[in-house]
Specification:
The chain crosses the membrane at residues 12-32, 38-62, 74-93, 127-145, 151-173, 224-245, 277-296. The protein is mostly helical. The protein has a domain at 7-124 and 148-248. The protein is built from 11 helices and no strands. Helix 2 crosses helix 9 (220-246), helix 3 runs antiparallel to helix 7 (151-178) and helix 9 packs antiparallel against helix 10 (249-271). The longest helix is centred in the N-terminal third of the chain and has 33 residues, at 3-35.
Length: 351
């Protein structure tokens, strides 16, 4: 099997793992928060990261991957930035309506496109831009309901979008620049992300929910779902870095919106959430956008292989589709959850 075909199969596997693990953790966290009353989102995310780090440490001890240290300032800054972006996304949900929060998540793709165009000189074709617009329109129809604006919430949303975009772009560029794998980057940055949220989490959750995570009554059911959530999060965190590394931040966001559509469908089937024609039409439009995005990216990749490849990296375009991607490298929006049961855990990407 050729190296190109092997890479494509690896990319498809990473995308599949990301979708399955993310949808699984959403269902698990939704049950934990909406039905068992454990609404401490930021603290739970810090536990996810701690378990992920411990799992990777065991994998390192078993020599399943090689530890490759690189610039410590980059690792620390990247880890703290990821932690801050998760906290800001939770604050954004806390100070905004669910509808405005969904708009915040939709804004991540155009913001990422803008930042990569301005600072990385990437070029996005009109076809790709149009496909992304269709995707965002569909997800918006399916998920956005009420739009209540306030100054503080808007500022927090803006900060959340910018930090999330930068963190996801860094996930890709760091792996390329330092030639580290997704596992190596996750292993080194995980402790700083975990500590950022572990320290701030209880205070942030107390501020948002008026409840104390340390005085919560931990029943056997709650503990079982927390353990299950943490175990699934290992796969979520690993697949997040793997997908962004193999594709691009924009493609990861497109995949994230696919997960949103799947979560809506599974929520209706398994948890009997409200689901109307608006949701169905939005999901259909979003799927059209996703298929179109993948088609045009594949088409542009094929043109690149035919044309002379003497183009510098500065002219790199957005040609990393959902099933065929350029090699490279948490984004943790999929596992940073909403603040209260009445929110129905709407907040699932980090994506």
């Amino acid at each position: 099997m050729s190296e190109s075909k092997s890479f494509q199969l690896g990319t498809i596997g990473a995308l599949g793992l990301s979708v399955v693990s993310s949808v699984s953790i959403v269902i698990c966290n939704k049950a934990l928060m909406s039905y068992l009353g454990f609404i401490f989102a930021t603290t739970l995310t810090s536990w996810h990261l701690l378990v992920t780090f411990c799992s990777l440490h065991v994998a390192l001890w078993m020599k399943l991957f090689e530890h490759k240290p690189f610039d410590p300032r980059t690792v620390i800054g990247f880890g703290i930035l990821n932690g801050i972006s998760i906290g800001l996304l939770n604050l954004s949900l806390g100070f905004n309506s669910v509808g405005f929060y969904q708009m915040t998540k939709l804004a991540i793709i155009p913001c990422t496109v803008l930042l990569e165009t301005l600072y990385l000189s990437k070029r996005f074709s009109r076809s790709v831009q149009f496909s992304l617009a269709i995707l965002l329109l569909g997800v918006g129809i399916a998920t956005v309901t009420d739009l209540q604006l306030n100054i503080l919430g808007s500022v927090l949303s803006l900060l959340a979008v910018v930090t999330t975009c930068i963190a996801q772009i860094m996930t890709n560029t760091i792996q390329k620049k330092y030639k580290v794998s997704s596992t190596q980057l996750l292993y080194q940055s995980c402790p700083y992300q975990a500590m950022t949220l572990f320290i701030s989490g209880p205070f942030l959750d107390k501020f948002l929910t008026n409840q104390n995570v340390f005085t919560f009554k931990y029943t056997p059911d709650v503990l079982a779902f927390i353990v299950l959530s943490c175990l699934i999060s290992v796969s979520v965190n690993f697949s997040t870095f793997l997908v962004i590394g193999r594709t691009s931040p924009v493609t990861y966001q497109v995949l994230g919106h696919l997960k949103t559509c799947l979560v809506l469908a599974f929520g209706y089937v398994l948890l009997h959430d409200p689901f109307g024609w608006r949701n169905i039409s939005g999901i259909v439009i979003a799927l059209v956008g996703m298929v179109s995005y993948s088609y045009y990216c594949n088409h542009e990749n094929q043109k690149k292989t035919i044309e002379p490849t003497a183009t510098p990296e500065a002219e790199e375009g957005e040609s990393e589709p959902l099933t065929h991607a350029e090699n490279g490298a948490a984004a943790f929006n999929d596992i940073a959850v909403s603040r209260a049961p009445e929110r129905k855990s709407e907040r699932f990407m980090h994506a």
